[in-house]
DNA sequence: CAGAAACTTCGTAAATGGTTGCCATAAATT
DNA sequence: AATTTATGGCAACCATTTACGAAGTTTCTG
């Protein structure tokens, strides 16, 4: 592969000059520039990004750490970020943390050792303290979907508590009082907050929270199925079900039909996240919108602004959920 | 950030020795190793991957180019690859090509300039010739979901024609003869081949192919909706519908219900890809399985074998689709 | 048991492919 | 002719790897 040295030789100029025409900062006469450009073309020269990073201590790439690479949720984060970063000619290096502390730390260290200019992290297992400590280090980062008061300027998050509140409220306003809940893993902040919001809504409407109508899932569809089975097997009556995400809601819907329930008449269901498939389920799933795409873009803008000094208006830190009404909730049926 | 130099100083050894203990290849006495390790720990030393790549001309990272970062299809590719590569301590750099030639070339060049040890490409717009030319260059790559005879050893692909055949056959065997088709963009190889397989099945069963019962979509759900609307508006009878992927099938199902069709009695539908949501649609979507996860892993194994010289049994190149029977196809109804 | 041979273990120094501050030169301006 | 100014070159530097060779240590041989 051709090097800058060969280019300079062919063009009859010095190394520095070639470098200058690549990084348009310094002035180079038009004639010289043309010679250099021609030489580059002739040699099919591709600058060695690695060498460039080493010398300039800049990599023009930002590291992203997500829990999983698979699934609609994370792919939305990645694609939102990539879109805005790419437009500014920054690139993206991705690692997966698999929601485990060691792997998350591993991933972060890898990204740092790769000399990313900044990191965008979706981490769930690493402690607040670790992140606060990390924030004192040399590598800037933003958090997505997590809020830590001490470093709140670096956090882009959703008001999950309010989201939990809204989803329960939708059911309550339709007259439901016996409401089951399929939760995400409670050690995850978002699951925890959603559940808190749920309880707040119940309290506000004077509905009793029945702790036997609770199932802690893991956010995967299968745990929605499992959760509904268990809830049903108790032979306790409930007319409404809130699931802490759409995946589980979808699993629960499948399972409900296996149990010969007529949806939505026999059971009103609400989800959370508003993934694209929510509107293609039958009945179309009412859910809480998670403006993940905007949030992902916000983190990317944070990086552009903070790290690359682009002039960008203020980056929004806290986003609000919104209830999306579709067909899966109906007024409670009199019997 | 601490450098290898500081470590060598603190440990009282030379640079080379420190390097040796990191890359366990050369021999170092235990005493020396311990001193070095202790120094590293004390300084919280993290090797600079960038400098390492430059010097060793190896980056331990492989570049992935997919069309989109978003969606179940691509996230499955990425996650399959990452899983096997990560297990061998290789890392992953991702770029998106957005199905456009310039962006795909751009992405490839970026990954090369980043000195990836190998590339795994899901490209749709770039020409065969470009890829054949690229294969003569210094950077090894595999193609996923594309077959080019001249470089078939570097291709991991699905027999899409056979898949198209299977999906039509399922409908035909249930007695359907009036079958509509919602295609992917025909300039994409896979869409093209699926459609060919479809026609082969029709011919084999002596069913007439009616070209007015054809709609060319773009693989997104919305084009499934649009497609079904148009097909329906023609007031031509059809009892079966094959969609070239599950996303479009899902869109078509939503739209069918808007038109008051009773699924599956009024219309039998089959999809393609077997994305995870296919089994959560109602009725559960019969579809053709695309063993994408295995294929993604196969490409990663190709890299491990070819580039990193790991001993791996033969990597499978051509994968076979398989029909997955669920609830969306029923025997044609007599009227 | 001395001395040679053969290993081990470790240090020196030259890459790797760029960036960039500083200085020199040539051209342009007054 | 003197002073600016626009260009371009030199060389140091970025943090590693690695070929080569120099000690030091062990084993072998007569």
What's a concise summary of this model?
The structure is a homodimer of 335-residue chains. Chain A contains 12 helices and 12 strands.
What can you see in these coordinates?
2 copies of one chain form a homodimer. Chain A is α/β, with parallel strands linked by helices. The first copy, chain A, folds into 3 domains: 4-47, lambda repressor-like DNA-binding domains (434 Repressor (Amino-terminal Domain), Orthogonal Bundle); 59-159 and 292-321, Rossmann fold, CATH 3.40.50; 160-289, Response regulator (Rossmann fold), CATH 3.40.50.2300. Chain A has 12 helices and 12 strands. A 6-stranded parallel sheet of chain A has the order 2-1-3-4-5-11, sandwiched between helices. Chain A has a 4-stranded parallel sheet with strand order 7-6-8-9, sandwiched between helices. A two-stranded antiparallel sheet of chain A has the order 10-12. In chain A, strand 8, helix 11 and strand 9 form a beta-alpha-beta unit. In chain A, helix 10 (221-233) crosses helix 11 (246-258). Chain A is elongated and about 90 Å long. Chains A and B meet through helix 4, helix 5, strand 2, helix 6 and helix 11 of A and helix 4, helix 5, strand 2, helix 6 and helix 11 of B. Chain A binds a DNA duplex (30 and 30 nucleotides) through helix 2 and helix 4.
């Amino acid at each position: 592969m051709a090097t800058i040295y060969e280019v300079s030789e062919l063009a009859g100029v010095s190394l520095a000059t070639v470098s200058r025409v690549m990084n348009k900062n310094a002035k180079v006469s038009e004639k010289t520039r043309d010679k250099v450009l021609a030489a580059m073309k002739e040699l099919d020269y591709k600058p060695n990004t690695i060498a460039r990073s080493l010398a300039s201590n800049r990599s023009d790439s930002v590291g992203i750490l997500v829990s999983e690479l698979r699934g609609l949720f994370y792919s939305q984060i990645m694609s939102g970020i990539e879109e805005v970063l790419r437009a500014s000619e920054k690139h993206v290096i991705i690692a997966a943390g698999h929601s485990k502390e060691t792997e998350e730390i591993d991933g972060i260290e890898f990204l740092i050792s790769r000399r990313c200019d900044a990191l965008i992290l979706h981490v769930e297992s690493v402690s607040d303290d670790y992140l606060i400590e990390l924030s004192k280090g040399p590598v800037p980062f933003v958090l997505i979907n997590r809020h830590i008061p001490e470093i709140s300027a670096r956090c882009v998050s959703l008001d999950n508590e309010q989201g939990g509140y809204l989803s329960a409220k939708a059911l309550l306003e339709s007259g439901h009082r016996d409401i089951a809940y399929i939760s995400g893993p409670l050690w995850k902040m978002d699951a925890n907050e959603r559940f808190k919001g749920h309880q707040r809504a119940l309290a506000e409407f004077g509905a009793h929270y029945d702790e036997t109508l609770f199932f802690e899932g893991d956010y995967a569809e299968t745990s929605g199925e499992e959760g509904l089975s268990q809830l049903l097997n108790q032979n306790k009556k409930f007319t409404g079900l809130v699931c802490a995400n759409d995946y589980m809601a979808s699993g629960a819907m499948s399972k409900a039909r296996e149990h010969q329930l007529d949806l939505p008449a026999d059971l009103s269901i609400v989800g959370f996240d508003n993934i694209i498939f929510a509107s293609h389920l039958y009945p179309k799933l009412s859910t809480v919108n998670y403006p993940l795409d905007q949030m992902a873009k916000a983190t990317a803008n944070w990086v552009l602004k903070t790290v690359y000094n682009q002039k960008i208006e203020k980056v929004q830190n806290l986003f609000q959920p919104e209830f999306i009404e579709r067909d899966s909730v109906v007024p409670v049926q009199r019997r």
